[in-house]
Amino acid sequence: MFVSSVEVDCSSGDSDNLMEVGSQKRLRSGSYGASFSKACWEKLQRNRLNERFLELVSVLDPGRLPETDKGAILTDAVCQLQSESKKLKETIESLQANIKELKAEKSELRDGKRRQRVEREKLEQQVIAMSTQNGILPHSPAISTAFAV
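Given the sequence above, the corresponding structure tokens read:
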């Protein structure tokens, strides 16, 4: 954020106490006594607003000359923000569609994994049944890992 201090000539010779450098806090009028008038505060406020409008113009279109028409500046800013908002909404919609597709794919993969596990268990049971019929003990991974230690 652009922060600057604005010096305003209030014809009191006390322009050093207008605002602390880098501070955006508004100081109480009582701290400056009667020499600091309401008109000085208003001029300071107008200058700050004008600086912010110039900053907004430079952000919107760096190559454009600053306009004095604040309505046009605000209209451009609103149009740009609406355009960005529309793009972001479209991005969100496409990401949500991708999430939906990925969830469906994940569900399909889980179902396929479950079917493969069931099929593997059936095949293992068939191997065990066939080997017991032939009198051959099947090679069990649980047995080989127990003796491997």
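The chain has three helices and no strands. Try to locate this feature in the token string yourself.
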